[in-house]
Amino acid sequence: MEQAEPSEALERIVVAATALFAERGLHGVTTRELAAAVGLNIATVHYHAGSKRELYAAVLRRLDRVELEMIAGFTRAFGTRSEGTREWLRGFLGDVVDTVVAFIAAHPELPRMRVRQWLEPTEGVDDPQADAGRAHSTLLEAAFEAARVEGLLDRGLDTVMFAHSFDWLVAGFFSGGAPSGERRRTRTAQEIDAFRLYLRAFTLRMLGLDELLPNVPNVPKVATEA
């Protein structure tokens, strides 16, 4: 078996466990399978990661950290911008969508893990999602509020509902069945690009920023209060 530094070994274990747990859940994966996936023996896995439940919790913490870092990066970019027009905001949100879709396409195990935990919370495992969700919401709400104050967004927008809808669209596309109805987890490049365009249209229309929107799949508008 290959030797590894403690921090490196733990990261390798958590990454491998994320993919396995996302597909089969806590009880569908054995410690032996986890050890084989990273080329370490079972004792080494226990030494670095603790029990299987502790490893499952570490996977959830890593997932929340990755999501929070991404959102924090977006909000920092928004806060340090040199422009403040609706046209600029449309472009910025388009870049956000492109970045999210590209990242999740490269790491499809992340939304699958999140959906599994949403639908089947694991008993005896502390789920950091509640605290992380509040942190995510605080960052998003602060950015949306700044945009409202500057007159870039309608004041009647339900930002919490929009954020949840965005999350479920992304998670559903990458963790559910293929758009064609086939029972497969992988997505073709064409499917991912079509979803990216759809998510751009959804985002702009839900936020009332769809002026001069290019010809993309129809998404119904949400009425906002004056």
Précis, in short:
The chain has 226 residues and is mainly α.
Characterization of the model:
By secondary structure, the chain is an all-alpha fold. It has two domains: 1-50, Homeodomain-like (Arc Repressor Mutant, subunit A, Orthogonal Bundle); 58-206. The protein has nine helices and no strands. Mean pLDDT is 80; it is low at 216-226.
Task: Produce the secondary structure layout.
Elements: H1 6-24, H2 31-38, H3 42-49, H4 52-79, H5 86-106, H6 109-119, H7 129-149, H8 159-175, H9 189-206
Helix pairs in contact: 1-2, 1-4, 1-6, 4-7, 5-9, 6-8, 8-9
Features:
single chain; 226 residues; mainly alpha; Arc Repressor Mutant, subunit A; 67% helix; disordered C terminus
Unreliable residue stretches: 216-226
How many E-type strands?
Answer: 0
What is the first-to-last residue Cα distance?
Answer: 65 Å
How do the helices and strands follow one another from N- to C-terminus? HHHHHHHHH
Helix % is 55-70%
